[in-house]
Inverse folding.
């Protein structure tokens, strides 16, 4: 289809164009660029398919025999792609990669005039190769508003860390105090246990002394007798 210069069946071409636009939303920048270059090439060769760039329902002035787009139809002639619009290009115009964004915006601005024919300057294969190599050195654009919001959130997180550190310090102080109280408690228990042992020893000594006194008294009585 791409290698032939003649215009193709409008339903099939529109179905392929619509599928390429959907494909561009689902993959990386290199795949998206290759699909967009292919899509642009098809729109340039099939002028009537540029009606998909119009915003009204039914693909602009051409709707075909099927009034509603069927994306899961196996037969492109029954998909009704001409009843849809390329709304995917609006999303791709906000793509993080500037080349994809510019290409999608350029395709969206293509008119449906019969005499507007622009030859492509880049093949899909070359686009895929170039942007696959570009992945290694590419750095996405930074939104200054989001960056400022991150800074604000960063200052808030600093305050949160200060609060958390204060709570941790209080917990640490409470733990030290609790440890001291537990230590005093177990020391007291140890003293009580030691006191019990001393009392038992004292009772034994007292009993022994009492028995010794009784023995002495008994011995004195025997002497008198």
């Amino acid at each position: 289809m791409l290698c032939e210069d003649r215009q193709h069946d409008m339903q099939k071409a529109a179905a392929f164009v619509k599928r390429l636009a959907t494909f561009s939303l689902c993959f990386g920048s290199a795949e998206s660029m290759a699909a967009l270059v292919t899509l642009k090439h098809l729109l340039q060769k099939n002028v009537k398919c540029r009606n998909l760039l119009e915003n009204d329902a039914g693909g602009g002035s051409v709707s075909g025999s099927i009034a509603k787009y069927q994306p899961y139809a196996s037969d492109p002639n029954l998909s009704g792609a001409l009843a849809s619009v390329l709304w995917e290009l609006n999303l791709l115009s906000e793509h993080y990669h500037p080349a994809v964004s510019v290409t999608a915006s350029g395709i969206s601005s293509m008119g449906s005039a019969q005499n507007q024919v622009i030859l492509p300057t880049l093949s899909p294969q070359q686009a895929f190769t170039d942007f696959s190599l570009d992945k290694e050195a590419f750095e996405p654009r930074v939104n200054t508003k989001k960056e400022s919001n991150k800074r604000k959130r960063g200052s808030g997180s600093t305050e949160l860390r200060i609060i958390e550190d204060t709570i941790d310090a209080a917990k640490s102080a409470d733990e030290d105090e609790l440890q001291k109280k537990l230590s005093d408690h177990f020391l007291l228990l140890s003293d009580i246990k030691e006191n019990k042992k001393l009392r038992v020893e004292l009772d034994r000594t007292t009993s022994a002394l009492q028995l010794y006194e009784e023995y002495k008294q008994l011995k004195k009585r025997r002497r008198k007798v």
Summary: The chain has two domains: 10-134, 142-225. Residues 57-61, 112-119 have pLDDT under 50 and may be disordered. Residues 10-134 form one domain. The longest helix spans residues 144-224.
